[in-house]
UniProtKB/TrEMBL annotation:
PANTHER family: CYTOCHROME C OXIDASE SUBUNIT 1, CYTOCHROME C OXIDASE SUBUNIT I. Keywords: Electron transport, Membrane, Respiratory chain, Transmembrane, Transmembrane helix, Transport. CDD domains: ba3-like_Oxidase_I. The chain crosses the membrane at residues 14-33, 45-67, 88-110, 122-143, 164-190, 210-234, 246-264, 284-306, 327-348, 368-388, 409-429, 449-474, 508-530. Residues 1-478 form the Cytochrome oxidase subunit I profile domain. This is B(O/a)3-type cytochrome-c oxidase subunit 1. Pfam families: COX1 (PF00115). SUPFAM superfamilies: Cytochrome c oxidase subunit I-like (SSF81442). InterPro entries: Ba3-like_Oxidase_I (IPR033943), Cyt_c_oxase-like_su1_dom (IPR023616), Cyt_c_oxase-like_su1_sf (IPR036927), Cyt_C_Oxase_1 (IPR000883).
Amino acid sequence: MSKQDGKLVMAHMYVAIVCLIIGGLAGLLQTLVRSGTLELPAGIGYYQILTVHGIILALVLTTFFILGFQTAAVIRTCGELSPLQRKLIWLGFWVMLIGTAMAATMVLLNKATVLYTFYAPLKAHVIFYIGMALVVVGSWLSAAGQVMRYAQWKKEHKGQKSPLLSYMVAINNVMWFVCSIGVASTVLFQMIPWSLGLVERIDVSLSRTLFWYFGHALVYFWLLPAYMAWYAVVPKIIGAKAFSDNLARMSFMLFLFFSIPVGIHHQLTEPGIDVTWKYVQVVLTFMVVIPSLMTAFSLFATFEAYGRNIGTKGLFGWVKTLPWSDARFVLPFIGMVAFIPGGAGGLVNASAQMNQVVHNTIWITGHFHLTVATAVILTFFGTMYWLIPHATGRVMTKVINKLAIAQGIMWAIGMSIMSGAMHYVGLFGAPRRSTFSTYGGSEIAAEWIPYQVIQAIGGTILFISIIMVVIVFIQLAFFAPKGYEAFPVSEAMDEAAPVYKFVENWKFLIVVTIALILVAYTVPIGQMFMDPPPGAAGMGEGKLW
Ligand code: HAS
């Protein structure tokens, strides 16, 4: 990678690592406060810390890392950026950074304690909303730069199959453009006028629906870069070929179709949305599970085929052939394993009847700590461990590699303890998003306390793991020996097979995506305008339900 592109990628990584430190510290404080072991100093609220934790980790760290990684992936597979494309990505970076600074300032001043799901009825200072809007606009600019590079490649190689990684980046970005219109609309047309006092009331139901139209696709915006690494990078690291290029493209196409028209599965307990539309979106949610199952199949097939090719015997003999002493493999692998229970928990959440048991309990927090905070983030760490030396012209050493593996294992231990306790006690009704309380001496609430202590133990181990990530990062960025670390990209076993043309027919992809969104959302959103749910407009500001 050229020096100037290395700088561009690293700028994103620096922001991501700073976010990890701040957000991780906020997470540690939360588990300590929730378990009753720590009291925050006067003037700092539990929900303020929770807002910092959610926004900095779930929204800012992920977006910067993803856009940096995707930029590197497009450069690696399509070639150098044009000056215009590079400028667009830099512009996007700065706009996001300014937006983040504005939003963060308001949160620190306690003027935007609205959690990372910042829909109504919680209200923030207008500067917070403008800041978040800038983060979205900045991400559009950066994504546009990447998509332009992919389009340029397509133009220069008419009739040829595009590089898999760049195709995946294009899918993720198109999904991002379409879904972030939801959050942009609620911020621009509802939250900003409300926060400025231009309107007295806004429709809470509509605000939540527009947020979740964006919010569920957001989780796939996090997941797909991890899948990019699983499909296209990890096979190269183990010395294998990916199972199938066509299958990978097909799975990404299905994510584009089904990631967005499913947001109402976050609102299954809400009045004001007709049960028919909840049913439709639950069915679509089960459709979005299919590409994940295809991914699981493909990964097993890649690992097993490689092992058998080099002559291992027995049902699981191939497991021994995997590179267990290479952090670039071990961390994403732990992520894959975590995604099995994480995804299974998602199926529970999406099943309407079981959702009644787990909704708004700390089970949900357990679910997303397995999915985004383990499967995705461990894959991102594993990716960082070759991407940073690749961008800075250094190489991984044996000692750093060992530390990186230890970091991944610590993460797995800490998260199993914390997320396990969250899942378990969630089933006994322990609420999410609540600080330490005995609920007036309630016997049931007393049973939750030991599990909150277990969560704090897990959280502490995770924080130690974060310190290890920072050490590895600093080593790789500034002190590791100079050299050349490749950006690993694997070939597929069916490389020579003809590609299914429709997976790259963008008119077809966009028409199907929009048609499914219209089917899933036209009537429920229409009903909100024509027949607002009782009390929707009058829930008032500042209430936390
Ligand atoms: Fe979720 C809530 C349903 C996946 C994140 N989810 C959340 C929230 C977050 C989140 C952040 O239906 C909380 C939002 C909030 O603040 O309120 N989720 C699902 C479903 C899936 C799913 C059906 N979620 C994710 C992913 C996330 C994520 C991915 C982040 C990256 N989720 C829900 C629902 C709610 C929800 C409801 C709302 C609940 C409520 O009431 O509030 C599916 O996509 C999951 C499909 C995946 C699988 C697993 C396939 C397995 C694979 C592993 C391969 C591993 C291999 C390892 C091959 C079925 C791909 C090899 C191993 C060897 C041993 C060799």
